[in-house]
Automatic annotation (TrEMBL):
This is LSM complex subunit LSM4. Keywords: mRNA processing, mRNA splicing, Nucleus, Ribonucleoprotein, RNA-binding, Spliceosome. The gene is Mo02753. The keyword Nucleus applies. Belongs to the snRNP Sm proteins family. Residues 2-75 form the Sm domain.
Length: 123
């Protein structure tokens, strides 16, 4: 499962983020980028030792500071279903039809395909 697809599926949903310094942020994901920088809204921040709390309307978390992210199980289920559908579509794209296939060379047929008459321009 790719982190980018997980974060896109979690947009608007509640999540918990713990930073490397031990602080935690509980809020709704409102934005994410390829560097895993996150924007949360309606945030409750908890200090590393757990004795102080702050309510923030919005916060921006740098991806390199994030230790882990916790999202709801239904978000994980949604992403797993989407990836399964994508893999199923991708596996059927490259398959060739079974049985004899005729007329796959294109062109006008006739003498040009048998090596006579130039480039197939009706000679």
């Amino acid at each position: 499962m790719l982190p980018d697809s997980l974060l896109q599926a979690a947009l608007g949903k509640p999540m918990l983020v713990e930073l490397k310094n031990g602080e935690t942020f509980n809020g709704h994901l409102s934005g994410a980028d390829n560097f895993m920088n996150l924007t949360l809204k309606e945030v409750y921040q908890t200090s590393a030792n757990g004795d102080q709390f702050w309510k923030l309307p919005e916060c921006y978390l740098k991806g390199h500071m994030i230790k882990y992210v916790r999202v709801a199980d239904n978000v994980l289920d949604t992403v797993k279903e989407q990836e399964a559908e994508f893999r199923a579509r991708a596996s059927t794209r490259g398959k060739r039809p079974t049985g004899p296939v005729q007329g796959t060379r294109g062109g006008r047929g006739g003498a040009a395909q048998r090596g006579r008459g130039g480039r197939g321009r009706g000679q």
